[in-house]
Write a structure and sequence with these properties.
The structure holds two protein chains of two kinds. Chain A is mostly helical. Chain A contains eight helices and no strands. By secondary structure, chain B is mainly alpha-helical. Chain B has one domain: Helix Hairpins. The radius of gyration of chain B is 17 Å and the shape is elongated. The model of chain B has no long low-confidence stretch (mean pLDDT 90). The chains are: A mainly alpha, B mainly alpha. Chains A and B meet through helix 1, helix 2, helix 3, helix 4 and helix 5 of A and helix 1, helix 2 and helix 3 of B.
Amino acid sequence: MAQAVVFWVCAIGAVAAGLAVFRVDSMARATFALLASFVLAAVPLLLLGLSYLGILVILMMIMEMVVMAVFMIMYMMNPAGLMPMSMVHNKKGSLAISTGTFVVLAVGVLLVDWPQRQGVPPPDVTFALGEALMGSHMLVMLVIGLGLFATIVSAVVLSHPRGRYDRFGDDLRRRPPDDPIPGSVDARSLTRIFGVGR
Amino acid sequence: MTLQTFLLLACALLAIGLYGALSQQSIVMIMMGLELMVNAVIVAGAAFWYYVSPARPDGQVVVLVAVTLMAVEMAMGFAVQTAIFRSSEVDMTDMATELKD
C-alpha cells in the first residue's frame, strides 16, 4: 500500500515536473524541473528492487543537470527568467502529435494482453546484472565502452576552437604552424629536443 | 503497481519529451525533450524486467544502455551546439539554415 502511494506520488510528480520544463520562463528553472522529473522517475526503479540502477540514474542525473545548467546559462539569452520567454515553433502541431502519441500508446498499453510473469528476481539483482555484463552480455558492455570512448573523442574534436587546418593551412603545409602562442610541440620539434626519429 | 501503470508513466514521459523536441527552438531545450524520451525507455525497461521476466537480466541491461545513451546524447549535443555556435553564432534551430535549398 505504502509502495503504491509512493509510486503514484512520484509518477504524478515526474510528469508534472516534465511538463514544467517547457512551461517555466527561466532556463535554470527548466533544468532543475528536469532534474526533479528524472529523480522522481527513478524512485519507481527503486521500488522495483533495482537499487543499483535507481541510484545510478539519480546520481547521474544530478551531475548531468548541474552541467546542463552551466550550458543553459552560457547559451541562453534569458538565463535568469527576468522576462517571459517563448521560443517555440509549431506549438499546436507539436501538441497534437504528442497528445496523439500518448493516446495511441496508452490505448495499446491498456488493450495489449501482456505476457505472464515468468520466474522471480534473483536474490542479488545487481550481481546478476554484473554477471550478465561480464558474461552473456559482454558484447553490450564492449559496445557501450567503445561508444563512450568515441563520444569523448568526437566531443573534444567538435568543441575544440582550433583544428589542424587552422594551424597548418588548407593544404596542411604551413610551417611553422600559425599558433596564437608560437612554440607548439610537433614532430619536428620533438626530433630537435629529444633527438628521436632520425 | 502493475505493468500497465509503469507503462502509462513511460508513455506520459515520452509524450512530454516528444512535445518538447518538436516544439522548442532552442537546441538545448530540444535536448531536454530527447532526454525525457530516453527516460521513458528507462522506466519501461525496468517495468518489463520486473513484471515479465525478472529471472533474466535483459531488462536491466536495456536500462543500462538507455542511461549510457542519455550521457552520449548530452555530450554530443553540447559539442555540436558549441561547434555550431563558434562557427556561426547559432543557438536556435531556426537559425541553422546552411543546408536550406
